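As described in the Methods, two query proteins were run sequentially through the folding procedure within a single session, without resetting any intermediate state between them. The first query and its resulting structure tokens are shown here.
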Amino acid sequence: MNERDLRSILSLNIKKYRNYRKLSQAEFAEKIGISIPFLSDIENGKKWLSPRTLAKIASALNIEAYELLKPEKLIPDNIVDILEKYKVDINEAFGKTLGDLHENFISQVITK
């Protein structure tokens, strides 16, 4: 991995996490104390940032700094968004399924 790859990963991750937190560039730039054009340049891979700014960004996004340098997840964002959107339904469905399995198991153990 070269510097260009690392810059690309960093810029995509910052933008992705910022959007996930539903923050505009203006809101986020103000929150971390940098200008909007500088944030835009970082998110477009045109500018590099200091370790201090990287730490501020990670803190504002409530993640560890290394997460901003990790290549894209194996699960595409659209799948993550779908899972997040239906999290309550999924938890209810799995909770019921696990509850049913547990009851089934207990009834089999008791009857033996």
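Immediately afterward, the second query was submitted; its sequence and tokens are:
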Amino acid sequence: MFNKIRRHIVGAVTILLAVTIIAAGCSNNSSNDKVRVAEVTRSIFYAPQYVAIEKGFFEEEGIEIDLTTTWGGDKTMTTLLSNGADIALVGSETTIYVYAQGTNDPVINFAQLTQTDGTFLVAREKPETFAWDQLKGSTFLGQRKGGMPQMAGEFGLRKHGIDPHKDLNLIQNIEFANIANSFASGTGDYVQLFEPTASLFEQEGIGHIVASFGKESGKIPYTTFMTKQSYLNENEDVIERFTRGLYKAQQWVDSHSAKEIAEVIAPYFDDTPIDLIETVTQRYKEQHSYATNPILDIEEWNNLQTIMDEAGELPKQVDHDILVNTEIAEKVAQ
């Protein structure tokens, strides 16, 4: 049975399929260098994207970015499918969900931004020495069923001999926006959190980071830039220049300190102290979450599908060359 995320995406595909087919012939051509990007959320996890904008790397390639935060995988994909955006930044699993519904204008992953999961395991009590079997019998606040964070989290737990549905009191009925508040209010012994909340909780003594699900799940195309095949066909030059601007930013992030990166991306996080942005950036750099080039390779793609399959959320196996275009990224990275 499709999970909630997939049901939303399926609904979007069903309603918008006819519109998408018609609109495919009406796309803007490459003479329009304004590119509308819909990001799934606003996150320090996406630092290279903001660096590319702030350091003028997209502008150097003749690209003007119109960035919108769409807050959720289903909303982001709906925005892309309905021509509300030219490019989406969201988890690659969404392209598989859409493809499984039989669309004739599939969504193609063309540039990878992050290559690990971005969540951390936070314990209420700080152990003298952490061991994964300490979680057995505990109350665990997980992420939304079927979403990439939860699937990667479950993969990490199983890796250490923990069945998340048998060995834990797993809570998954709390809305994403309320998970952190629920833990802060006293619910749960452990929680799976994104940054900067995980580090903020540690600073405030609410919880303690004891493990990284990004390290446990290995390299996966966690967040990628994607576009409809029709847009790619008609605007390949724009996509190539966009990818080149991104690659410049990826290289810049890889060669600069967390402090320097934090100073550049701070305008995107008005409510977050710059020292916290630096802490989070350093944590992501240390675990190699930021991809250093835009190439989404076969091994990462297969790892993604393995994680989805083990979670019972993979609708069908899809070959790498069907939903991933590496030609542009490889050309840019040469």
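Residues 4-24 form the longest helix (21 residues). We note this only descriptively and draw no conclusion about the first query from it.
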